[in-house]
Write a structure and sequence with these properties.
22% strand, Helix Hairpins, BirA Bifunctional Protein, domain 2, 2 domains, single chain
Length: 424
RNA sequence: GGAGAAAUGGCCGAGUGGUUGAAGGCGCACGCUUGGAAAGCGUGUAUACUAUGUGAAAUGGUAUCGGGGGUUCGAAUCCCUUUUUCUCCGCCA
């Protein structure tokens, strides 16, 4: 979330810039500013009274020590009405603070100046493309037929065991999966990210820290008995490593990568692009997460985008990079680049990565701060993350684009990881 | 799952109702000392909100001793609750 201070000092700018995200912040910003005034007033009153009580208490202590019990007992009575006042004020203050919090959480992150205006995905701006779209043979098939023909991914079996959207990877299909995970992790490590194996379930505080809670609650699987959530992305546990942490400026950049299974309920998205591997409830993804100094976070974003691009290039897939418009960018992001690969048999672009700079929006929720050398003041760090990469659609594109009349050719970089060069 | 013990600052560790944001030590920073270093000496060393205020600073108030709640004029200290850790028992990949 945005900091109160920022909203106070940049009221007009906040409202103006959020228009790019098609969000009218004016009413809510005013409510926030008003609530905060209330909060300050109430807290000042409370602090004053507490201060009085504290000093009376000290006196009482001294009186008792010097044997003046009578005077001490008399002093006690002074505090009774003060205590009542404090009780009321603190209850009030708690209410005001929850209200304020609820309001603050409703304001999306400010989009970066380069975010194009727009309503939806049709307004995203293509900034780069690469690779060549293959010419497929006559009998080319979409991946959901290929997976069946070669018996490498079994969707029906997943339905039996769990439900729709939980495929079972078999034989070379499973092996390809593992190969991709290892390939991505190794490449990320070479690019300076250090590997993390995080928990796959997180608590409420972590869900809040990265912005999934409270608003996207319905998108996560919830383990009710223990009040835990299955992670929708490794971003959640990995970024939360740094919740309530104060770094030194010299610690930057912090770069982590993690493979995890990801779980998404995808409530409300049935019926649209859900065939085969296009949209799953459980899928594998390798994530990169970076923490950076505010002055350097956009340079880091560029590096991350360039790195993700090399992964796709090494796999030999046709791709394009989009700068998301205000209508398509996420609530918490300031600037996002999406990567899409072209899946030839479906004749369709599939999103395989989303690389974002959240600036201090997540950091504020996380209380992730840093200190400049020798400075006492803390500042919020910037957080960034991206997929590098999400597997299912990469697999879909590999299967479709690399299919030949003789079977599916494995991209060169994966052959050693797979231990085979064709799926026949 | 059952029984017991514990949780204090960057770390170790004292502290069972009264000027305790918290002894002492370590670490760290700065200064003195030195040809330089070590040792020694001195000073400093949490976070948030807030008031006054500044070029920067500084000073005051409030809160925080795992989390939440309570008792009390006053809580690190007493009570309740919750989480985590350790030990023992049970179960188990």
């Amino acid at each position: 979330m945005l900091t109160l201070k920022f909203i106070q000092e940049n009221r007009a700018e906040v409202i103006e810039k959020l228009k790019v995200k098609n969000f009218d912040a004016s009413a809510i910003v005013d409510q926030i500013l008003q609530k905060d005034e209330e909060r300050k007033q109430t807290q000042q009153n409370q602090d004053n009274i507490l201060s009085q009580i504290n000093s009376i208490s000290k006196e009482i202590g001294i009186l008792f020590k010097s044997g003046k019990a009578d005077e001490a007992n008399a002093a006690k009575e002074q505090t009774t009405h003060l205590k009542e006042e404090v009780k009321e004020l603190s209850q009030n203050l708690a209410l005001i603070e929850t209200d304020l919090q609820k309001l603050l959480v409703q304001i999306p992150n400010i989009p970066h100046a380069s975010v194009p205006p727009g309503k939806g995905e049709e307004d995203n701006v293509e900034i780069k493309s690469g690779g060549t779209i293959p010419e497929l043979h006559e009998n080319a098939k979409p991946h959901w037929e290929l997976t069946k023909d070669f018996d490498i991914i079994d969707f029906e079996l997943g339905v039996k065991i769990t439900g729709a959207g939980f495929p079972v990877y078999k034989g070379k299909g499973a092996r390809l999966q593992r190969a991709l995970i290892n390939f991505f992790l190794d490449e990320n490590i070479k690019a300076g990210f250090s590997e993390i194996m995080p928990p796959l379930v997180v608590n409420e505080a972590s869900g809040f820290g990265t912005g999934q809670l409270p608003d996207k609650e319905g998108q996560m699987y919830h383990v009710g008995v223990d009040n835990l959530y299955l992670i929708p992305t490794a971003e959640v546990p990995v970024t939360n490593i740094y919740r309530d942490v104060i770094l030194q400026a010299k610690d930057f950049p912090v770069k982590n990568t993690a493979y995890s299974a990801c779980f998404r309920r995808e409530a409300g998205s049935y019926g649209k692009d859900v065939r085969g591997l296009n949209r799953l409830h459980q899928f594998d993804k390798v994530e990169i997460v970076a923490l950076e100094h505010p002055e350097k976070s956009y340079a880091m974003l560029d590096k991350m985008v360039a790195h993700v691009e090399t992964l796709i290039q090494k796999l030999g897939l046709p791709y394009r990079i989009l700068r998301l418009c205000g209508g398509d960018i996420s609530f918490t992001s300031a600037l996002t680049y999406d990567f899409e690969v072209f899946s030839a048999a479906q004749d369709k672009w599939l999103e395989v990565s989303s690389v974002s700079n959240f600036e201090s929006y997540q950091a504020n929720r996380l209380k992730l701060r840093f200190k400049e050398d020798g400075q006492k003041k803390t500042q919020l760090a910037h957080t960034l993350n991206g997929s590098a990469l999400a597997l299912p659609r990469i697999v879909a594109a590999i299967l479709e684009n690399y299919q030949t009349p003789d079977g599916i050719k494995i991209p060169d970089v994966l052959v050693d990881y797979c231990g085979f060069d064709y799926i026949k």
